[in-house]
Amino acid sequence: MAGSKSNYLSLALLDHVLGKSRSGGGFTYSAPTTVYLGLWITGLNDTASGVTAGEPGSNGNGAGASAYGYARVAVTNNAANWPDAAGGGTAEKHNGAAITFGSASGGDWGTVTQFALLDAGPTSKQAANILYWSDLTTSKTIAAGDTASFGIGAISITEN
After folding, report:
1. What one-character-per-residue DSSP string does the chain give?
2. Domain residues of the chain, as ranges?
3. Distances (CA, A) of 134 to 26, 68, 97
4. Are the C-beta atoms of 77 and 35 separated by less than 8 Å?
5. pTM of the complete model
6. 90 Cβ contact partners less than 8 Å away, ≥ 6 residues apart
7. Which residues contact 104 (CB under 8 A, 6 or more apart)?
8. pLDDT per residue of the chain (160 residues) written in tens, 0 to 9
9. How far apart (Å, rounded) are the C-alpha atoms in residues 145 and 133?
10. By CB atoms within 10 Å of each CB, which of 42, 47, 63, 150 scores lowest?
C-alpha cells in the first residue's frame, strides 16, 4: 500500500525545524486548526495537490468536486480527533473519532482508491495543500445512497 507525506509538508517541516528560512523569509510552519479528509478516484502521489488530484465529481481534474453530494470532511485538529502518536522506531498516529462523509446523492462517486488529509476545505480548493495521502487497503465503489466512512483508528499515519 502506497502512501506518504506530501512534498509540500516535507519541505515545510524541514524548514520549520532547521533554519526557518523558507524562500529567504522567516518561515514558521503552523499546524492547521482544521484538517480536511478527501477521497480520490485518480492517482495521488507526493507532488499532488488539492487542485490537480481527482476527487469524486471532479471529472478527474480536481476542479469543482461537489457533484452528487461529495464534499471533503472537516476534522478539528485536536487531541480528541488525533490522539498522541505512539511507537518506537516507527511512530504511528490514528484518528480518534469516526469520520463520515455525506451520502452520495443523485449519482455515483466512482471507485475511490485513495484518501488525503489537506489543510483547506472544499470552498478554498485552490489554496489546499495535501499533507498526507494513502491508498485505501481496498478500493470502494461509492454508489448513489452510499456513505463513505472511516472508523476509529482506520486512518494510520506513520513516520520513521
Report:
1. --EEE-HHHHHHHHHHHTT--GGGS-------SEEEEEEESS---TT--TTTS--TTTTTTTSS--GGG--PEEEE-STTTSPPPB-SSSEEEE-SS-EEEEEP-SS--EEEEEEEEESS-GGGGGG--EEEEEEEEEEEEE-TT-EEEE-TT--EEEE-
2. 3-159
3. 31, 23, 19
4. yes
5. 0.84
6. 158, 159, 160
7. 56, 68, 69, 70, 142, 143, 144, 145, 146, 147, 148
8. 467 777 778 777 777 666 665 555 556 678 889 999 999 988 788 888 776 458 886 654 344 456 788 888 999 999 999 999 888 788 889 999 999 999 999 888 889 999 999 988 766 555 688 899 999 999 999 999 999 999 999 999 988 7
9. 26
10. 47
Look at the chain and count its residues.
Answer: 160
Residue showing cell 522567516: 26
Pairwise CA distance, residues 72 & 11, whole Å: 24
